[in-house]
Amino acid sequence: MVESDDHLPRLLCLHGGGTSAMIFKIQTRRLQWALRSTFKFVFADGPFPSGAGPGVLPVFAGCEPYFRWLNPASQAPEQDQRRVRQALRKVMDDDGGEFVGVLGFSQGARLTAGLLADQDERNAADGMPNWKFGVMLCGSFPPLSLSLARTPSTKPSQGVDEHGETREPEDDEIVHVPCVLVRGTLDPHSEKGRRLVKYFDPETAISMVFKMGHHLPGAAGDTTSDKGDTQKIVDAILKVYADHLPYEVLKAPKATAIEYGNGQLSA
């Protein structure tokens, strides 16, 4: 008999662009198994139809429909924000449990970053819970905001000045909600992921870098990440959820995790 997980706090899971809740459920099976006694994983579909995203085919051929969180043909950003909020609220309302964290991959990680930033700046989208923590897997800059206080194009300030040059975030742009940020050294979006990290307080965030591409450790075809990388991510998630205190360095046997602290990468 399978034990019910209805008593557990919920972790809202947001898939990448061009995939789906069903696919993300498969992609995160290792995390789900490791955290099965701590969280109930609840998966949401993005509101916008999409073609298959990068890396989806041929592994998930025939698994249509595919969805995304960002509307590439947007003509009304506020309406798009509203559709995303409605999709998230419906999934959470249907479940009926207590949502404590949000976990996203790729485009879903950008949305996760936006939800945390909105909350930190007291512009939380209507109907969103008070997130205790977030997890961003292979995310990139900039975050996707759902706040009607501003449009996505002004959230945060795109990390560039009036001349289009990259810059460091201002103090009032730093997000203090506890979180875990994971990126791969072989990910073509790794630099945008590095920029995303800079917008999170190093006293409440754990940034981890693994030798992998734009996928989770142990994904189909992955030949570079270590077997213990998933457990390191699990340990980091448990830490930010358990105490919300300034993080401790996660020691890795093969130094696959890189500490982010004091505003600088150590490697």
From TrEMBL:
| GO biological process terms on file | secondary metabolite biosynthetic process
**Which GO molecular function entries does the Swiss-Prot or TrEMBL record give?**
hydrolase activity
UniProt cross-references to InterPro entries, sorted A to Z? AB_hydrolase_fold (IPR029058), FSH-like_dom (IPR005645), LovG (IPR050593)
The record places domain Serine hydrolase at 9-220
Gene Ontology cellular-component terms listed: cytoplasm; nucleus
Database matches in Pfam families: FSH1
Q: List all membrane-crossing ranges.
A: none
Region of interest (Disordered), ranges = 150-171
Gene3D superfamilies in UniProt: alpha/beta hydrolase (3.40.50.1820)
Signal peptide (residue range) = none
Q: Specify the domain of life of the species encoding this protein.
A: Eukaryota
Alphabetic keyword roster: Hydrolase
Q: Which family does it belong to?
A: Belongs to the LovG family.
What is the official name of this protein in its record? Serine hydrolase domain-containing protein
